[in-house]
Structure formats: C-alpha cells, structure tokens
Amino acid sequence: MNFDALDRKLLHELDQNARASYAELARKVRHGSDIVRYRVERLLSEGTIESCSVIWDARRIGMCIYKSYLKLRPDRKRLEVLIQKLSRSN
Fold first, then answer.
1. Domain locations in the chain as residue ranges
2. Are 72 and 79 in contact (CB under 8 A)?
3. Is-contact 10 38, C-beta < 8 A?
4. Phi then psi for 86, rounded to 5 degrees?
5. In 55-65, which positions are buried (b, 16+ CB within 10 angstroms) versus exposed (e)?
6. What is the pLDDT of residue 55?
7. Residue pair 40/25 in contact by the 8 Å Cβ criterion
C-alpha cells in the first residue's frame, strides 16, 4: 500500500483523537471533508485502520507514556524473547 503525506497526517490525527469528526480532521490536515472521508474510509477498507478507540491522557495523572511502533519479522523465538524482556521492564 502506498501512503502519501495526507494519509500519514490523517493517521496521526486519528491517533491523537479517534473520535474526531471528518470536519475537524479536514481542518487539521487542511483538506476538504469529502477528501478526508474518502481517505479514512479507504484506510478502513484496506485494513490499515482496524479500529478506533479512546486512549486516556496519562499525563493528567502524572504518568509518562511512550508509543513505539515496531516492524518485526516473524521469528517466533526472538519475538517471545522480546515480549519477555518488555514484560520484565515494567
């Protein structure tokens, strides 16, 4: 799948606020709401967006949250080792 700058901006904005309306998203990415609706629906139909959910703001209660996106090769043993290390770091 090819993603352009608009797709990336939309994914970023939806990551920040999954409940944003098409009009609000359009204002933030500076494109028309029809284009934004089409792009979001395309990302949904292609499976790029699987679901949208609410994530609460941990900073408001004094916590720090870091998001990491990993692209992993399907090596089962190495994946299990990584999950164990991440689980122990809590």
1. 1-55
2. yes
3. no
4. -65, -35
5. eeeeeeeeeee
6. 67
7. yes
Q: Count helices and strands (H / E) in the chain.
A: 4, 0
- Which residue is listed with tokens 């709401």? 33
As given in the structure block, the two tokens for residue 44 are: 């949904």
SS3 87: helix
Rounded CA separation 46/5 (Å): 17
pLDDT in tens, 15-53: 888 889 999 999 999 999 999 999 999 999 999 998 877
The residue assigned the tokens 């979001």 is 40
What CATH number labels 1-55? Answer: 1.10.10.10
Tell me what pLDDT residue 4 has. 92
pTM above the 0.70 mark?
no
Predicted pLDDT of residue 69: 81
